[in-house]
Amino acid sequence: GQQVQQSPASLVLQEGENAELQCNFSSTATQLQWFYQSPGGSLVSLLSNPSGTKHTGRLTSTTVTKERRSSLHISSSQTTDSGTYLCAIDPGNMGYKLTFGTGTSLLVDP
Amino acid sequence: DAGVTQTPRHEVAEKGQTIILKCEPVSGHNDLFWYRQTKIQGLELLSYFRSKSLMEDGGAFKDRFKAEMLNSSFSTLKIQPTEPKDSAVYLCASSLQGTLYFGEGSRLIVV
Lengths: 110, 111
Hints:
Largest interface: A-B, 22 and 22 residues
Shape of chain A: globular
Helix content of chain A: under 10%
Order of helices and strands of chain A: EEEEEEEEEEE
Helix content of chain B: under 10%
Number of strands of chain A: 11
Number of helices of chain A: 0
Oligomer: heterodimer
Distance between the termini of chain A: 40 Å
Number of helices of chain B: 0
Largest sheet of chain A: 6 strands, mixed
């Protein structure tokens, strides 16, 4: 089945530093989304980026479809960015059924 | 607009009990998903409905897990009988054209 690998598993930053999160997947994806989950909270979709580069606020995602990888860059991290970041892909053959990675746990210290 | 609503938020069940979790999707969304989230396995898809039709029944979860969607605004997930390994957060999500909106989840503990 579809595999989604995320790295690093965890990351600790000082406030103001940048973060780079990676997502690698085992087959082609027609959908790729990044989600954020606050500690004990629900998942929120950050952005959808099946190919190319997308920006929203301090977030930049770059997906290279041929290489089956995507990255999420968080600039000028804040303590409120702490939480888990999940990458999810859909191979496109079953509607919008997403397969999730196990996530990157980010802690931003003040 | 109301988001995805899940009830109950927390449930403690004894092994062997029947549990029914409920979900109200965002109004107008065609797709509804049930996921299970644990620290070890992460998010696992249990069921997927498109326009109330069951598209995916979760494979390995078929025997004790049953999701239903009797109308476009309400879905249930029944676990029968529950086992301690079912302890997890059960998440419901809905979408219209790709972007998923998740509920707060139902945290189930089976003792």
